[in-house]
Design a protein that fits this description.
Elements (H helix, E strand, L loop, with lengths): L6 H4 L2 H7 L3 E3 L9 E10 L3 E7 L11 H7 L3 E9 L3 E6 L11 H18 L4 E6 L7 E4 L5 H9 L9 H9 L7 E6 L7 H9 L4 E8 L1 H4 L5 E6 L6 E6 L1 H25 L2 E2 L2 E2 L4 H8 L4 E3 L1
Parallel strand pairs: 1-14, 5-6, 5-8, 8-9, 9-12, 9-13
Antiparallel strand pairs: 2-4, 3-4, 6-7, 10-11
Helix pairs in contact: 4-5, 6-7
Length: 298
């Protein structure tokens, strides 16, 4: 199969200019990161005042608030918020079914991944790329720095189809990486042969904050099919003959709506973001709907 996207498409100046207006803001990031632009759970020697606490032997005397000592005769420390990086882990579904249509869904998924990577790198956050299908791979270990955009584009443009979709296996492999807590972005059509239960189980076990980005087309709910046809599973090759009637089409719509309802319920239970990406529309305007006021709070 041909590549879903080229490095030049990702580096399109107009696309990058649109992405440059967006930012990711974390409510809190896990301790242990690098100095950056996100608020850490740690309180220490940052620049933004947060609280006081009583002095304990061994504390840094440079943090003592001498004004309080002069007024009250008691020794308190001034605590400041540490500003650290937010690790952003991009799990991009590259199962074979995402490469078959025109244009392929994988193309929109990779553009969304590059947009989010560019936003994070601009903020000095770390970005890692984890393509998955029948299993998950580490295409790029978490890196940071504004100059890494080209490297990210090269990695994304070089990714190839990865067989059938297997959420359970893929995200067991992801959890085994032991990565610092961050934002896990899952870009996928979320169609697993094992059903939505496999998706719930795989993502429910993750300790990271989640952003779910389902890739969809209007034809998923309203396929332009009539008469007697043979449906072939593009990943397994299994075939089934179907007579398309109004009743069958209504069942397709019902199944689609139930499926999307399950994704919404999963996002609500996990406090996750959810952004449906219509693969036939430009990606950045859709991301802007998630980034209210130009920023997304993870």
């Amino acid at each position: 199969m041909p590549a879903a996207i080229t490095r030049e498409e990702l580096f399109d100046p107009a696309f990058r200019e649109e992405v440059g207006r967006l930012s990711i803001v974390a409510r809190r990031v896990a301790r242990g990161g690098r100095p950056a632009e996100q608020r850490s759970r740690d309180l220490g020697s940052g620049i933004e005042f947060r609280d006081f606490r009583p002095y304990s032997p061994g504390d840094d005397i440079r943090s003592i608030d001498w004004n309080i000592y002069r007024r009250l005769g008691r020794v308190f420390l001034r605590l400041f918020e540490e500003m650290e990086d937010l690790p952003v882990y991009l799990a991009v579904d590259l199962s074979e079914s995402l490469f078959l249509e025109t244009p392929p869904r994988a193309r929109a998924g990779l553009r969304a991944a590059f947009a989010l990577a560019s936003i994070a790198l601009r903020q000095h956050d770390r970005v890692g790329i984890f393509p998955f299908g029948d299993d998950l791979a580490v295409a790029l270990r978490p890196v940071s720095g504004r100059g890494r955009d080209l490297r990210v584009a090269e990695v994304l443009a070089g990714l190839e189809p990865r067989g059938r979709t297997d959420f359970r296996r893929s995200f067991r492999r992801f959890a085994a990486q032991g990565l610092r807590e961050g934002l896990l972005v899952v870009i996928s059509d979320f169609f697993d042969p094992a059903g939505i239960e496999a998706v719930r189980e795989a993502l429910g076990a993750q300790r990271h904050r989640l952003l779910l980005a389902p890739l969809w087309r209007a034809s998923d709910r309203d396929p332009a099919l009539t008469g007697d046809i043979e449906l072939v599973d593009c990943e397994t090759g299994a075939a089934e003959e179907v007579s398309v009637t109004p009743a069958v089409l209504e069942r397709v719509r019902d199944a689609h709506d139930r499926f999307h309802g399950e994704l919404i319920a999963l996002a609500r239970r996990r406090g996750a973001g959810l952004l449906r990406l219509d693969v036939d529309r430009e990606v950045v305007p859709q991301l802007a709907e998630l980034f209210a006021g130009g920023r997304y709070e993870a």
